[in-house]
Every structure is written in structure tokens, then in C-alpha cells.
Amino acid sequence: MSRRRVGTGVLAAGMLLVALVLAGFVSFYADSDPDGLTKVSQDQGFAETEKDHATGDGPFAGYSADFVGGDRLSGGLAGVVGVVVVLALAGGLAFVVRRRGHAETAANGSADERVDAA
Amino acid sequence: MHVPDGFLDAPTSVGTGVVAVAAVAVALRGARRELDDRTAPLAGLVAAFVFAVQMLNFPVASGTSGHLMGGALAAVLVGPYTAVLCTSTVFIVQALLFADGGITALGTNIVLMGLTTTLVGWVVFRALQTVLPKRLSTVAPAAGVAAFVSVPVAALLFVALYAIGGTADLSLSTLATAMVGVHVLIGIGEGVITALAVASIVAVRPDLVYGARRVMAVRELEVRPSGAAA
Fold it and tell me: N or C: which end of chain A has fewer CB within 10 A?
């Protein structure tokens, strides 16, 4: 079977690029209607029980970096910051938690290293 | 489905907070079995991808939108324990940095959109794998169906939490009907996004996809002439 294997570095760069483009650019075109729970809370009359958010005055609150001008730039910057922060936290956590070495893949480690180096 | 502050009372929020902390503690131990030098880099990227796609609300009905929750997607890509860590990270950053989802509701949101969609998604995915042919081509559709199921289940769990500690006096059956109805539609989006994302990574690096491991193992064990089509 024709399996096109790409290197881990290429895959990682591709996933990061996709995440940055989605959060930084495509998010501008997201539907701004209330989401499922918000709409249900409005329809059923309990939306007003929502309390003000404790971090509602933060620089990126509501996915909008108001200190830069323009909706597109402000939302895009918030998205990019979010991707970087989530990547750093979750990636760092995974790095700390992981098993060291190629325990499970020692048998075909050389093949993986070839791919990784590509 | 980010729950804001005020929808659930304090005792219920404390309760979900305790469950969330326990779930993350268990996930920290379990994730060690799922992550090694080769797969660890993927975990951070999956979390970042889930965050990015959660910004992309899609229309589901008149005046209503929905977005990915991502537990099933993360579970299939990096394993269920790691998925709980990935999605929890997303909800913590969303609540603290973006004021999306209440601070007192953080435990609730981790339990509903992280833990529940991960658990339900993974259980359904594994069940489908036992009945489907052991082929790589079945991984993405199974992930999509699992993701679809996980969303209305999370919506039902919200109704259950509301029954325990909702701050308004509502008809629970009406609430359940409305929540499940709209989240079945959102689940379709969740399923499509999950299937597409899983298929993309299976196409290029199936060896890195946690949910494809059994299929890969079966394939490695088959004695075939080299180069034969699988």
C-alpha cells in the first residue's frame, strides 16, 4: 500500500500552521450567534442568572485584544496568543509526563529516526 | 457549551471542581503510559488544535451556533488520559485568559466538555473498533461517530447537573429536550470535524495515532509478501 510517511517535524509544523491560521484568521468568519447552551438559556429564561466574569476585563477577554485596532486584527491576535499559550502549557506538560526513550518502539526505532531526520 | 458563572450553585460547582481535579490527577498518571519521546510532541499540538477549532463556531439552527468540544478527537489522536490533560488545558486557558466559561464553572466545563466527551468518545470508539474490520480506513469514521455521540451525552450531563444545582426553577424535561435537540446538531459538526482531522493524520502518520495502534499491530502481525496491498 502506498503510505506517504512525513517526518514528525513536518507533521508538527503543519499542525501548528493549521492551528495558527484557524485561530488567527479563519476565526474571524466564525458564526457569532449564541452557542447551544447560551441559546437554550435565553429561550428558557435563565440566561440572566449568568454572573459577570471575574477575568472579563482582561486584555484578551472575549477573544478580542481591544488594545489593537480592528476586529480582524484584535480577534486574530487573541487567537494566535491562545494557540501559543495552550501549546506551551499542554506541550510542556506532555514533555514532563512522558516516558523517556523509545520503550515501545525500540524494535523499529531506526526506521522512525530515519523518518524523523527527513 | 461553556457554562458561565451563576448557572450552577456553589456546592455543585465545588463538586464538579473536585471531580475535575481528581480526573486530572488520574490523567497525569495514565498519560505516562500514552506518551513517549515520539508521541509527546503531538499532545501539545492536539491541545492547540482543539483550542483553535473551538473558536470556529458553525451555524446549527436559526440563531444558534456550536463548536467542537474535542474530547473524542484528542482521545483517538493521543489517548484518553492525555486527552483529558489536553482539553483541561484548553478550558483553563479559555476561562483565565479569554473569559470564556466561568472561573467557578471551570470544574464543570472540564467535567462536561473534557472528561465526558473524552470518556464517551473513547468508549464508543473502542466499541466500534471491536466490530469493524481491523483496517486503517475505519479509524476516522469510527472517531467521527464516537465524537457525534459524545456531544449530546455531555448536554444530558449538564441537565443532570442543573437538576442537582441549577439556580433557576425550570422544567427539567423541557431543558433536556432543548439541550439534547440542539446538541445532536452540534454533534454532527463535532463528528465531521473529528473524522476529517483524524483522517488527515492517519493518512500521513498512522503510527502516531493512538487509536490506530491496534489496527497497526494487526497489520504488522499479518504475514504478507512485501509490497502487498493491505
Answer: N
| Residue A110, pLDDT score | 41
Contact between A90 and B48 (Cβ < 8 Å): yes
Q: Report ipTM for this prediction.
A: 0.93
Chain A residues closer than 8 Å to B46 by CB: 15, 90
The residue assigned the cell 513536518 is: A10
Return the residue in B32, B35, B37, B139 with the most chain A beta carbons within 10 A, the one to mutate for interface testing: B37
Residues of chain B with pLDDT under 50: 230
Quote the cell numbers at residue B151.
456531544
Which residue ranges make up each domain of chain A? 8-29+58-117
Residue B174 with chain A: CB contacts under 8 Å: 44
> CA-CA distance, B71 to B107, in Å (whole number)?
15
Q: Which residue has the cell 479563519?
A: A26
> Vertex B143, ends B138 and B146: CA angle to 5°?
125
